[in-house]
Each structure stands twice: as structure tokens, then as C-alpha cells.
Amino acid sequence: MGAGLKRFARNRMALLGACVILIVVALTIMAPFLFPAGAFALVGPALQPPSARFWLGTDALGRDVAAGVAEGARTSLLIGMSAAMGAVVLGAVIGGLAGYCRGAVDIVLMRITEFFQTIPAFLLAMLLVVILSPSVLSVIIAITAVSWPGIARLVRGEFVALGGREFILASAGLGASGPRLVFVHLLPNCLSSIIAVGSLLVATAILLETGLAFLGLGDPNVMSWGLQISAGRVSLRAAWWVCTFPGIAILLTVLSINLVGDGLNEALNPRLRER
Amino acid sequence: MSDVVLTLDNLTIGLPKGADRAAAVSGLNLTLRAGEVTCLIGESGSGKSLAARAILGLLPPRVTVTGGAIAFDGQDLTRLTQKQLARIRGDRIGMIFQEPMTALNPLHSIGRQIGEVLAIHTAMGATARRARVEKLLADVHLPEPSRIARSYPHQLSGGQRQRAMIAMALALDPKLLIADEPTTALDVTTQAQILRLIHELQREHGTAVLFITHDFGVVADIADQVAVLRQGEMVESGPRDAVLNAPQHPYTKALLAAVPRLAVPVRPVEAQGLVVLESIGARKSYAAKGWFARGRATRALDGVDVQLHRGETLGLVGESGSGKSTLARAMTRLLAIDSGEIILNGESITQLTTKALRPYRQKIQMIFQDPYASLDPRQRIVDVIAEGPIIHGAVPAEARLRARDLLRLVGLDPSAAERFPHEFSGGQRQRIGIARALALQPEVLVADEPVSALDVSVQAQVLDLLADIKAKLGLSMLFVTHDLRVALQICDRIAVMQHGAIVELGTATAIFTAPRHPYTKALFAAVPGASWNQSIPAAAE
């Protein structure tokens, strides 16, 4: 793992991405101190352009856009990380079961996975949020539900490939139980690919969340970038700043997570390392 | 004896920074003459393959010729552009690779691939090309050349594919043929045929051949000249008989001494012990799966009866697909059989569940073929070895302490315990694999080709270690190998397998001096360098 980190550090773009993510994380921590009034507070006149008092201007209701961006960062990261984590766990369990048990279990689980993959992800997420009624938790559940199939297929593939290797046979020959094979030998050996793909999932999860919030399907009591853009779209020509700054925040965050994910993939994946 | 075709003059091939040495090959001088076979022999990592690839300008990225010259046909090949080299490759220098399946394009028919060589380098018309391809395929003794020309690589056997490769390499009657371990991936009987073919064609066409190999038996069969390479430096060269029978350099002597003899060493005869492990009528077939491919099951085991007695080493010998590995895995219950019984110490273990089987697992342990795949890359050595005892209820701290003792037993330093598998060489890893198997204090060791992935000098060490440990701990051993020479060295009794059945079973001496089954006889006849091997006195060890 230490060697992997060193290889990661050699990738300049990935390092840059990591810096941007750190800044975003710092922003979420500092938000309550920078904007004690909160993102929903009406702090000034409506549609003020960026100025010394309101760095990023105010929206149609007189809310501070900067405060919204800072609080939205927390929502995006929270939902992105939790949904990606949920998808990784769910995907690993289903893929692991399919890859370890093979046979009928494999066939059934993989058909279910394919079923989920063929449904348009965004539509399914919308549907789930509507059914569960919009809240942070239901958004996380919805995004998890549409993101796990990729992880499941990855883990299954790795398990199948590793399952034929002699060290797994050797361990079985020592009398190792199923759980021991899975948790001591199989999972640690595909951990690096799971981490790499999982980190990219965070980016897609953030995009899905903004999309849902834009359509008004996010939690109405929580500020988010999607909600900001949605609120500012009617006044886009008169007040460009309301939509633009949350948009830049989304772009930078998603781009840097992708850069970090690619960097991790390159650093941890021995097949790409040769190039 | 005749004219020089190619000279390597002080050839040096540099490796990228961070490699284990600065140059893959340093200061290599070699002269290849028409009508002669020159064998370049060395262990893995000696730089023999890179030397061959340098001639064709096919070095991997970041590896370059840093000094010296390659004189061919009045030109220095190191100074030519890739375009100029491409005109020479295939036309005046032919090449055969180790693995014929990967060297052929699976999407094109054999005839089309050979025809391509002709189309690139000659002005022949399509009909002329087709006729020439069939003539070439007939020259390498492939049956029904026109049918073979229409076939795709996967429809041919390994030996047939290698013949097709040779036909392709010789299509334009090159002055030089480079063969990089062309028989290593083949079964021993096929290997003998291919060696004979190369020899015959080379005599007919007067081609110079650079033959790369790690096997002294092959050298004895085919070489005129021999060059021995160690870590990129040529330590000895000369005519075959001089190098093989009167080696000068200590390294050559050591390598030759490590070649397993085709002879049965004198062993004290012991009374046969009780049967410890037995297979009765074991059957296993692999069905062709899928909705469309029905039937055509492959029979890997066809009613095998075999008994392993306490304290003996029983060899399972056969070619690939003979079912020997399947039998070994079936007897360790790593593979379920379709019918029959596996009996350990008088108890049937055929139907036991994973849990019920665990106490019996302790008694049979397996050593695997591939030292690179048989250790978990993410486990420290101490955990690899201690895993078995911990599964069987040992106190982890004690198991780890014992792991260090075991490392000493297999000839490794106990400090190796804290390191990871990738820090060890193939031979060292195989020792770790043996330590893992011994950690459970088994009664039976099942070794599945434990030395076939190792260099010959390391092979001898690991075989000695196995024999030593077996005697010290009073184990019984089932030893799977494709190499009769190895089997004769280490086994008390030998079972010869073909098509999933045992065709002959007897003591090593009986099998060696009086083989009865025609297949056994064929195997002996095909051992590379058989006549040379028998001529070496056993006292040389």
C-alpha cells in the first residue's frame, strides 16, 4: 500500500485533484463559522451581484449564494460518500456471493444485476425518491440502488479469476472455511480495484444527487448545489451568479474526484502499472 | 565448416534503470554458420531471449542495444531502421516462438497467415501462393495440407501449430532461423518430433539456426555449437560434445550436474508399508457446457485404481491431458469426482462436507506447480505458513513461532517470515510452499509438478529437499510430473497415465529397464538427449 501511495503521488493531476477535494472538505467544516446565519437565511436584498459583502452575490430571495455553496458542499459530499459506500458494500456482497458460490446462485444474482443495469439509472433513482418521499436518506438509498451493479460485476469477475488461482486451492487444501477464503484471501486481493472504482462512484453519485435536487426531488430542508441551480435558473439572464457558482463547484468537485479515482486506479492496478 | 551467416560482436543490451542489473547481455560474441545449429542455453533471467530479440530488432520498450554490432549479410542490424529491419524479418531471418497459440492470429486461417508472409515479401500471385503454402505445410509433415491451410489455429493441436509456425518461418527459405524455446510448451513426445523436424529442415536447406533453450537434453539432441549464458555473460562456448562431455567453466559443470539423469539411483529396498491413500474406480468427466454444445464430455479420469503405501513415493507420469493432475487433486479432495471412492487410512473421504473433511485435510497436504500463483501475494510468509495450524485450532502465536522453525527446515532464513511472497525467487517460493504443507504435520504429501516451473539447478535443490524431508519425517508422497527423468530420480514406484487411465504401474527400476506398455516406451524414447543422458556416469553427481 505504501508503494501504491508513492506511485499515486507521482501523478500530478491526481495530486491536484486531491488538493481540490481537501479544500472542499475544509469548506464544509468551516461553513458554520463563515456563514453563521445558514444558507436559508434572508441576509440581504435580492439578486445582488458579487460584492465585498456578498462574495458570490445573493439569489432571488436575498439568500447568500456563498453560504449555499459552502453548505451544499456538505450535502454533496455526505450523499456522494454514503451512496458510494452503500453501493460498494451492496455490490461486494452480491458480486462476492455470485463469484464465490457460482452455479445457480451466480446465475440468479447476475440476472438481477443485469436487470438493474438495463433500467435507466436516473429514472429509477427519481422513481425511488418519489416513492420514499424526498429526504437525505431516501436520496442516498436511491443512488445506492442504481450504482451497485457495476461493483457487483467487478467483484464477481475478480472472485472468479482469483478462485482458480493456486493459493486459493492451497488454502482450501489446508481446510479453510468459506468465510476465511473470502475475507482473508479473496477480498484483500481485489480491494485495490474496489477502491479505485468506488472512488469514481462518488463522482457519479454527486452528479445524480445534483440532478435530483435540480428537479426538486432533493431534501427541501437541506441546501444543495442542485437546488441552488434550480432556484437560479429563472433569473439566469438577469443574475448569472446564482447558477454559475454552484455549477463551478460541481464541476471542480466531480473533476477532482475523477482525477483522484484515475490516479488510484493507476497506482493500485498492476495491469495498468506496466505502461 | 562453412560460411558465416551472422556474427554478434561484443553485443551489449542495456536494461532500464532500476532493473536488477545494468545490462541484460554484456559483451556477447557469437558466430552462426550456415548449416549449423547453435544453442544458446541459460537459466531464466540469463538474457538469452533478449539476445535473440535484439537480432530482429524486437526488444521490449526501454531495452536497447547499447554497444557492439550484429553483422548479418554485410550489414550491421543494430544500425538499420525499423523499416529496413522489417524487410529482413520473415524474409531472410525466420523466427519461431515458444507458445504457438499466442504467436498465431486466432482469427486468420493458417493458410492465410503463411500466405501473408509470401504476399509481403514476394510478387507471387494468389494461386502461386496457395500452392506454395500447401507445399510448405507438406514439408513440415502436416497431414492433408489443403485442409490444414483452411483451418484456424484453435482447430490444431499444439504440435501441429508449432509445425505451422515452422512452415511460416521457413516460407521464404531464410538464411537464419531463430527458435526461442520452441518446444518448451509442448509435450515430450511432440517435442521429440519437432526437434527432429527442425533438424531435418535445417540440414535440407542449409539454414543457420539459433536455438534458445534451458534444457541440456534438447541441446544434446540438436546442437552443433553451444554457448552457455549466465546473467548476460557467456561463460563457455564450443562444439556440443566438448561442452557437454568436458565442460570447462564451473557454472557449466554445475548446470550439467543438476540435469536429472535418465537412470534409477541405487536405493535401499524397503518392505512395502500399509496402504495410506487409495483411489478406487475414480471417474471424472468435464461436460461440454452450453445450450448448443451437447455431449462430447472430456474424460479426465476413467476408473482409476491406485494405492499409495506408507513411506513410499509414487510417481504419476504422463503428458498434458493425461489426467495426472486431476487425479492428484481428486485424491486430496480439492476436486469432486463423479464416481468411485477416495480412501484415506481405511476411511472413505469421498462424500464428506467441507466441515467434516477438515480433520482429514490435516493428513494430506499439497504442493503446487506454480510458485508465483500458489502464495497469496498479500500475506506475509509467516501467515502463509501458520494459516493451516491456525485453522486447525493452534494458538496463533505458537503457530507463528513454529513457522520460523519450518523455514529453517526447508533451508530458508527465519528472517524471511516477515516478508511478502514477491520478494522471493521461484525456488524460494516453492520452499515456502513446502513449509506450508509441512506445517500441518501431514502423513501424505501430494506434489503437483513441484519443480517443472523451476530452473534446472534450483530443480535439483528442491528435489533433494523433498526427498530429504520425506525420509526425515517418514511421509508418503504422491509425485506428479511430466518428466520421466525427475520421476526416476525421486519415485519408488511409477504409474504411467494416458487418457485418464493408468496404463502401466511398477517399480521405478522395472519401468525403466523393462517398460511393457507401448506408451511408456514412447515416453522413454522421447526424453530429450536420452542417449547422451545415459552415457553420463552416475558417479558424476
TrEMBL record, chain A:
InterPro entries: BP-dependent_transpt_permease, MetI-like, MetI-like_sf, OppC_N. Pfam families: BPD_transp_1, OppC_N. Its main location: membrane. It comes from the Bacteria. GO terms for biological process: peptide transport; protein transport; transmembrane transport. It is found in: Cell membrane. Keywords: Cell membrane, Membrane, Peptide transport, Protein transport, Transmembrane, Transmembrane helix, Transport. Residues 73-261 form the ABC transmembrane type-1 domain. GO terms for cellular component: plasma membrane. CDD domains: TM_PBP2 (cd06261). It is a multi-pass membrane protein. The chain crosses the membrane at residues 77-100, 121-147, 194-218, 238-261. The keyword Membrane applies. Belongs to the binding-protein-dependent transport system permease family. This is ABC transporter permease. The lineage of its organism: Bacteria, Pseudomonadati, Pseudomonadota, Alphaproteobacteria, Acetobacterales.
TrEMBL record, chain B:
Keywords: ATP-binding, Cell membrane, Membrane, Nucleotide-binding, Transport. Pfam families: ABC_tran, oligo_HPY. It is found in: Cell inner membrane. SUPFAM superfamilies: P-loop containing nucleoside triphosphate hydrolases. Gene3D superfamilies: P-loop containing nucleotide triphosphate hydrolases (3.40.50.300). It comes from the Bacteria. Residues 6-256, 275-524 form the ABC transporter domain. GO terms for biological process: peptide transport; transmembrane transport. PANTHER family: DIPEPTIDE TRANSPORT ATP-BINDING PROTEIN DPPD (PTHR43297:SF2), OLIGOPEPTIDE TRANSPORT ATP-BINDING PROTEIN APPD (PTHR43297). Belongs to the ABC transporter superfamily. This is ABC transporter ATP-binding protein.
